[in-house]
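Late entry, zinc ion complex.
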Amino acid sequence: MSEAPFLHCNRCGRPEPQPVSHREFVCASCDYRHFVTPFPAACALLLDAENRILLIRRANEPGRGLLCVPGGVVEGGETAEEAVSRETLEEIGLDLPASEFSYFAALPNRYPFQGYVWPTLDLFYLARVSSFENIQAQESEVSGWEIIPLADVDYREFAFESNAEAVRRLNANLPGSVCT
Ligand SMILES: [Zn+2]
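Prediction complete; structure with ligand written out below:
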């Protein structure tokens, strides 16, 4: 992993824009400023009526073979709800409209990609599903899936701490659960 994601200036091509801070790199020739800012990612917390959660096994690095929830980077022009709906359909074949998802938490994450550890902001959205029967995993990204009672999740198996923390919070504070 490199310390900077910018090997050359984006404008004039001079090598090695210099770090001003951990998130800003400036070109010594033309002063062009390069920034490292978090990518927003939308992530799906999917529960059935028995409070079982759907977790997928990653087919690729980072975290190959480990667990995460369905999700991916938000594309330009999308709402986060549209992004999480699209990613859910793409990765596991469940067609849930954006309106079915409600905001749950936003947690920072770090994602190694193309030689640099990028910051992301993982936006977690919760949706209830009537059934997990019709899952069709996208083999290029998903090597398998598990449907686990929330109380039985093994947090050590997650690829990303943000995902583990979101599921931990969900287990501790399930919306709609009745406290007596
Ligand atoms: Zn430059």
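The pocket of zinc ion is lined by residues 9, 11-12, 14, 27, 29-30, 32 (CB under 6 Å). Will revisit in the morning.
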